[in-house]
Design a protein that fits this description.
The chain contains 8 helices and no strands. The chain is mainly α. It has one domain. It binds zinc ion.
Length: about 190
């Protein structure tokens, strides 16, 4: 899937989880902002194994780094596209957040962590709809996809993704946001400034 689809899927996933669990705790505005950022990073993070990922494209020598990291991670759609990779990234991101906590004291890092993880899971779910599939159960070297029949799945970056899948994800985002509008407004109304 292309980055734009992943971005949209990540925020849609986040909003679905938020309205499903409707956190009763007061959130700092800083938490909400950092969580949304973390969610978007999580949404494209698995593609750090891809030299051409937007993640690397925007860095000056990103192409070179991207190729090196990609090779270390076993090539595209390998470690970072599996449950083990998900657990590993979750562990590392938790370490990073704990490390960063002193410079962002008002940010409730457990929410940021969840937002990141939701972004990452949404990435793997979306990639599962593509022809390549996702090696969910590494080290078992089988790539899973939905529907199970490969030729019924999507080719990344083709018109079906751009003009059907992307708008569909957008539609889900709009429908959920409109349906739970008051819950979402309430979440912002209850936030603490800082
Ligand atoms: Zn991917």
């Amino acid at each position: 899937m292309i980055a734009r689809t992943h971005d949209l899927a990540a925020i849609t996933g986040l909003i679905i989880v938020v309205v499903a669990i409707s956190p009763s705790q007061q959130l700092h505005l800083a938490t909400i902002l950092v969580a949304v950022l973390a969610n978007q990073i999580g949404g494209i993070a698995p593609d750090i194994d891809q030299p051409t990922a937007p993640f690397w494209r925007n860095l000056p020598i990103g192409g070179l780094f991207g190729r090196m990291i990609g090779r270390m991670l076993g090539g595209h759609r390998f470690l970072t596209h599996s449950l083990i990779g998900l657990a590993l990234m979750g562990f590392l991101v938790n370490l990073l957040l704990v490390f960063l906590q002193p410079i962002m004291p008002n940010v409730q890092i457990e929410y940021v962590w969840w937002a990141f993880m939701i972004g990452m899971v949404s990435h793997l779910v979306m990639d599962s709809f593509t022809k390549e599939g996702v090696p969910w159960l590494l080290p078992i070297p089988v790539k899973f996809g939905f529907p199970p029949l490969k030729r019924m799945r999507i080719t990344t970056g083709k018109n079906l993704e751009k003009f059907v899948v992307l708008p569909l994800v957008g539609l889900v985002l709009v429908v959920v946001s409109v349906t739970y509008y008051s819950d979402l407004v309430d979440l912002f109304r209850r936030h603490v400034v800082g």
